[in-house]
Design a protein that fits this description.
Elements lengths: L24 H9 L10 E4 L1 H11 L1 H21 L5 E10 L4 E5 L2 E3 L9 E3 L2 E6 L2 E14 L3 H67 L7 H35 L7 E4 L13 H11 L1 H21 L5 E13 L8 H4 E10 L7 H67 L5 H36 L6
Parallel strand pairs: 1-8
Antiparallel strand pairs: 2-7, 3-6, 4-5, 7-9, 9-10
Helix pairs in contact: 2-4, 3-4, 4-5, 4-7, 4-10, 6-9, 7-9, 9-10
Length: 476
């Protein structure tokens, strides 16, 4: 740690070193314990918030997975559309019988000229019909002419599935952006606190050295207790610095993972301040934006539509299904004669079929009832989520206002605390104040500055969370 001059810039009180960033434990365990991630060419990158978001949207695997889900839904939509085309299939088979197929012609007697000629007796005969080897080829076509609305309802459900998947992609993008902002702000906050703790440590190191010099020089302004207090203050500040430095590294590691970089890559923040805040936000406008653009609400609205199409699909069982079928068949057998004649070797068929379900034990009726209840359930879920999101937006709005007020208060207090600290430091060097007064002045200054940093962090984080719930950035 670089040693600085005693400028009274000592930072952070007891309140300062008990803060908690609430990092998701699962993320950190994944970062440090998963052996499957490697990076042969680690990078050292300087980034700002916009660069971190752009990198995450390009590399984050959650976004890749959600994009693949959208591609699956689009393929299923095209699959449903395929029912508007006829189905054409080519079939071929070869069969060998254990023996030749025969037709036994029974014995018969013919009386050609009764009373004049004796009857003619024709003995029983075995007639070959098919040889042992037979080949069959057929080209078959089927096409549904009428399905009672089932085909169109299945296509509609598939189309809504694509829209739901698209909303999920947008929801994932919003989640990735929120995660990047959360970890970026955490890294910026811990960086500020770490620097604050570093200043405190250096200030208390100088205070300890001055106190020791006064004590060893026989000054009447300090005693053994003053020396012990200065040493304890320095030790506590140094321990706090190490803790905050570790938290800063953890925040950078979480940000690196969210950006989709390798665990060996090193990043540091190029910006030292938070983005500009939005003033004059109105709660009713924020809630209106959330209800109109939140992707989770939009997904539930689409789910209600999907259940409507599902009801039409089930109702189609009340109507007949009509289809067209045609085929062209080729038959070949090793026997010349019997059934293997030119008239039988090639043939075609064309027909229309109809199927109507007359009775299925009330299954269709109950399926319609279940689909209607499912649609009503999605409506209630949409109302519940809408109320929940409105409540969350209101809570974050109030928290943002509180953070903004704290920023104004602590910003005014920073100048006063710095002046008090500087005066105490100068007075101590002349023996005008006691050691505990210097420590107290530095701790008060650190508390004010730490609270100011925390208020800035909280305001930026609350605005990021509001943007996630809104489905877009908040506007004035």
């Amino acid at each position: 740690m670089k040693k600085r001059h005693f400028v009274g810039a000592f930072q952070h009180p007891m309140h300062f070193w008990v803060f908690d960033l609430h990092f998701p434990v699962s993320i950190l365990l994944f970062l440090f314990l998963w052996p499957g991630v490697s990076n042969a060419n680690p990078q050292t990158i300087s980034i700002d918030l916009d660069q971190a978001i752009a990198t995450a949207l390009e590399n984050n695997r959650l976004r890749i997975i959600s994009q693949q889900s959208l591609e699956i839904a689009e393929a299923q939509y095209q699959q449903a559309h395929s029912t508007f085309w006829p189905s054409l299939s080519l079939n071929a088979s070869f069969m060998r019988r254990d023996e030749t197929a025969i037709f036994e012609y029974p014995e018969q007697n013919f009386n050609v000229a009764p009373g004049m000629l004796p009857p003619v007796n024709v003995p029983a005969q075995d007639i070959d019909m098919l040889g042992r080897d037979t080949s069959l080829y057929s080209l078959e076509m089927s096409y549904p002419l009428y399905t009672g609305g089932k085909r169109s309802s299945l296509i509609e459900q598939a189309r809504i599935g694509v829209d739901i998947a698209a909303k999920e992609v947008r929801r994932t993008d919003l989640q990735v952006v929120q995660d990047v902002k959360r970890y970026y702000y955490a890294a910026l906050y811990t960086q500020q606190l770490r620097d604050l703790a570093e200043d405190i440590t250096i200030s208390f190191e100088v205070l300890r050295d001055i106190t020791q010099a006064f004590y060893e020089g026989g000054s009447n302004s300090v005693n053994k207790l003053d020396l012990l207090q200065s040493r304890l203050a320095h030790a506590l500040a140094e321990a706090t610095y190490e803790e905050l430095a570790a938290k800063h590294k953890s925040a950078l590691a979480a940000l690196t993972f969210t950006m989709g970089l390798g665990w060996r890559d090193q990043i540091h923040l190029s910006a030292k301040s938070y983005p500009e805040s939005i003033d004059n936000l109105k709660l009713d406008q924020l809630i209106e934006q959330a209800l109109n653009f939140n992707p989770q609400i939009e997904q539930l609205s689409l789910a209600v539509e999907a259940y409507g199409a599902k009801i039409e699909e089930v109702k189609s069982d009340h109507y007949p299904t009509i289809g067209l079928r045609a085929s062209y068949d080729v038959f070949d057998n090793e026997l010349n004669g019997g059934l293997s004649v030119d008239e039988n070797k090639r043939s075609w068929q064309l027909g229309i079929g109809m199927q109507l379900k007359l009775f299925n034990g009330g299954r269709t009726k109950h399926q319609v009832s279940a689909a209607k209840v499912g649609q009503a359930q999605k409506e209630q879920q949409k109302l519940l989520i809408s109320e929940s999101i409105a409540t969350q937006v209101k809570h974050l709005f109030l928290q943002t206002k509180s953070a903004r007020k704290q920023i104004e208060i602590t910003q005014q207090a920073v100048a006063t605390s710095q002046e008090n600290r500087d005066l105490s430091n100068r007075a101590y060097q002349t023996g005008a104040v006691k050691t505990e007064k210097v420590i107290e002045a530095n701790l008060l200054d650190a508390m004010v500055r730490a609270n100011h940093s925390r208020a800035l962090h909280d305001q930026a984080l609350h605005l990021a969370e509001i943007a996630y719930l809104l489905g877009k950035e908040a506007v004035e």
